[in-house]
Amino acid sequence: NKKAFVELLFWKSPATVYEMTKGYSSLQEGEGSTRSRVPPWTPQEEQELRELYWKYKEVEGGDIIAAILAQLPTPGRTRKQVVKQLVRM
C-alpha cells in the first residue's frame, strides 16, 4: 500500500493494524472485538436478574452482586456484566 504512511498518522487499534498488514478483508465479522464476545442477555436472564435483585436488595451488610452471581443459572457472567446490566435495566 503506497499510502500506508498517511494511515500511520492516526491512532490504530490492534485489529486495524492487523487488517493493514494482512489485507483489509482479513478479519472475520466480530473477530478482534471484545464487545462481540459478550453474550447478549436473554429476556429470561433479565427476568431472573430482576427477581434476584429484588430478593437480595433488602439484605443488610451483604454484597448484593456476589449473592446474585451465586444464584444466576447461567454460568460465565462476570461481576462487571451483572452490574452493567442492572444499571441498564
TrEMBL record:
Under InterPro entries, the record lists:
Timeless
Any one GO MF annotation of this record: DNA binding
A Pfam short name: HTH_TIMELESS
In terms of domain of life, where is this protein from? Eukaryota
Example GO BP: replication fork arrest
One GO CC term, this protein: replication fork protection complex
The name this protein goes by in its record: TIM protein
Organism, by scientific name, is: Erithacus rubecula
Q: Which gene encodes it?
A: Timeless_2
